[in-house]
Queue: 2 jobs
Job 1
Amino acid sequence: MLDTTEGVNFDIVIDEFEAMTKDAKRVQEETLKKILEENAEAEYLQKLGLKGKTDLESFKTHVPLVTHQELAPYIQRIADGDSSPILTGKPITTISLSSGTTQGRPKYVPFNDELVESTMQIYRTSFAFRNREYPIGRGKALQFIYSSKQFKTKGGLAAGTATTNVFRNAQFKSTMRAMQSLCCSPDEVIFGPDFPQSLYCHLLCGLIFCNDIQFVSSTFAHSIVHAFRTFELVWKELCNDIRYGDLTSQVTDTSIRAAVSKLLKPDPELADLIYSKCSRLSNWYGVIPELFPNAKYIYGIMTGSMEPYVKKLRHYAGDLPLLSADYGSSEGWIGANVNPKLPPESASFAVLPNIGYFEFIPLGAMTEISVKDNESSTLLCVDPKPVGLTEVKVGEEYEIIVTNFAGLYRYRLGDVVKVVGFHNSTPELQFICRRNLLLTVNIDKNTEKDLQLAVEAAAKLLGKEMLEVVDFTSQVDFSTEPGHYVIFWEMNGQASEEILRGCCNCLDRSFVDAGYIGARKVGAIGALELRVVRRGTFQKILNYYLGLGAAVSQFKTPRCIGPSNNMVLQILCNEVTYSYFSTAF
Ligand code: AMP
């Protein structure tokens, strides 16, 4: 039996999950009934004529599929202080701000206690499965987690990113304690006002407690890679701080300084040890297990837009396993990774049937039409016919629709998932991509995944010169006739012109969509352009988003820059050092 400190028995957590997933259809019906009962008074449901009915047929007949756009006016009224039952029976008192990095702008979404509860449920569930395979001992976790700025909406509601709302909730700490996963850094570091100072102090606290660290984690894997890229630059300064027990003057925030200084005592022995370990490493391979000898694994979301960081993470991780974390969004959680032994590339998520009511639009059967909006092209479907959670088929791709306890009804999340199997009777999903098309000039259709694969293929050519792509994004440039794809690349060094020309041609050839190839051959799409940007450009983009209220914990590099994202485009264009046009076609 697993040892616990807060009375949570993780064997029981697994048993409950097994029982619930064996009965997923019934649990889904009950969950829908409960959501509709609790929110029967909500103006939104009343207006749709549901009249307190809680059965599936009435729900499907009366409630339409919606996107965030349709719900936005209701959410805005809540944010503006209207406390009548608008979307939920009980008034919403907190608003989450989605990262906005996938869609270009942050969105407001309702947040409530039920979302906190389902977050804790999913944390406990995946931990229970993880700990069965990779048990951790008593100790601490080096968690690169950061809160965003919290602010009040016009109506006085607390607003912040969903992760911030969770980190600030008392249940977060008690759940982490029960999982023996408390963050080694004090709260002042997590909630500090300045990201670089918080990051530096997370690293410092990790080193102070290096023998206690049981695992290294972040919400999205990008934050861990970013942290160790920074470590490569500041490790000597960290050693100095530890040697003399004196925090660098670069950390100026008084609350962070006070909290971290309390932990810092002169320790020349530890400083020497870290110094000699770092000096011995070859190109920082395996730095994480070297610094944290008792760490059992690395944990964070490594799927979807995080996949491009997995290679670098593996490099830092050496022989430590990478465990991919769960699947969710600001709107709510969806599934837990209950097969932690699978590598990130094949990680899947078993849907928790009691945290929401889930429907799936089969993509194969959908009539797709490409429509341009300001951001990018979007796939719209004509008369989509969603199926229920237990009706999905293995091997098929679906767009996911969520109904939850926080006032979202038949809400199109915008994600495409693939069913790769079943855990009892609940499906295991793999994340495929956002539904929005990323790159399209005319008849071509390329998603975030297509871009990622093209970049991966082309980046292999850099290996010859021991270089790598630090980060990337893209744009469709319509200022030329015809329009063409532009790929922005930041690398960790200077590549030769010959190699970069090869990379550019390889990128162009790696978009295997028939529409793209056809249009390129007849000249209806111009030659792909590779623009190399200076080192540090993507850090500037991250800083720009942080300035808008985003949180590092939820940051995802935008993979396509639409015309409405002028500021980011400007940052990129100012930093271009070379540009190459493909001669592949
Ligand atoms: P946000 O609410 O802005 O933090 O973004 C939520 C989005 O992040 C989801 O809709 C997904 O597109 C993406 N996401 C969240 N979890 C995962 C995961 N485990 N794998 C891949 N993508 C994910």
Job 2
Amino acid sequence: MEKLEVIGSNKLKGKIKISGSKNAALPILAATLLSDKKISLFNLPKVNDIETMILLLKSLGSKIKINKKINSVYIKNSKKINTLASYNLVKKMRAGILVLGPLLAKFGKAKVSLPGGCAIGTRPVDIHLKAFSKLGVKYKISQGYIHARAPKGLIGNSIKFKKLSVGATENLIIASSLAKGKTLLSNCAIEPEIIDLVNFLNKMGCKIKWVGKRSLKIFGTKSLKDLKYKVMPDRIEAGTYMIAAALTEGNLRIINADPKIMKKEIEILKKMGIKIKLKDREISIKGGKNIKKIKLKTSPYPGFPTDLQAQLMVLMCKADGKSEIKETIFENRFMHVSELNRMGAKIKILGNKAFVEGNIKFEGAELMATDLRASVSLILAALTSNKKSIINRVYHLDRGYENIEKKLTNVGAKIKRIL
Ligand code: UD1
């Protein structure tokens, strides 16, 4: 099994180009099932989750041509699609559940495996399912599968999500786009990836309107059109490299990023004493010796993203005192802590809060990656230690970071993949 070897202590200098957003590309790819017109998607990240989604779509009968050179795909579906999304593919990635909405909308039935994904909590799909019932869907769960049918097709309704959920909001936006009549979705998640999905669907001919900060009005349509669409940049990848620059006292230009959708991350890093300059599609970041302690919590957008919690915690370990971070999205998202502590960190967990001692010098160690963002936090810690670290189970990392070794090596890091 592949491992990463990291020898730290180099200041990272130069520029890193940000890839397309994995979490925007996944629902957009799922939404292509709605259409049998020509669709070209650009700026897809070359990561395993995207490959898994493409395999899942192909297993349903989607006709997809991939152009790896320019990170794009061309899709032209026939009218016939298989409606069984098998365990083999959905187990690899929770976003597999996103094919449920488009299959129900287009074909009135679907059998979709209950999803897998990172082991960061129980991650149920009850919010998705309850909302689908409001659109006229009948379902039962048996043998690990959701068996869903909409005998009369989906019928528009008013749905208020009981809790903010990125995936449920996306699934319902996609499904309602072809439902009969009008749907009003309220208490929607408003992550930038959801805005990108809505932009994509509207360009494809759907009729979706924001009618309040967290409310959407969707008029079902059947007339979709050809389109070419470029996926937005990955804000979590950008945030990860910003933290890498801060940690190594480096100086990085993060290009192809969108600072407008990263206001909270930028505000927090500035509060920690990191120097940041912004241009339209570029973030320049300069790390120094004095990092200030901070207290914060993760929360849905526009709050601080849970997907950057593990990375920020590494920076907290270098601050001038005790920091605190409260994880409010997932109940089990501190699995990086025991590995960071093995590297010399002093982090204590109490319920959903982590108390992080500052002024830590990380020691290299042999480490085990446990989920996507936890894996990258171990790389960040290893980049600050002059001893060698070996990170096992890097397949987690490959789910969501394109060419991470190459991007980091290009700016001066010593990191390589070994067997
Ligand atoms: C998405 C992101 C993930 C990010 C998360 C929160 C993708 C592919 N993944 O995941 O990277 O960490 O948003 O920003 O975009 N919940 C329920 N019932 C449900 C659905 C969710 O209880 O039916 C709970 C979850 O367990 C979690 C919370 O709601 O505690 C938020 O989850 P959600 O926003 O749905 O996350 P995902 O869409 O799975």
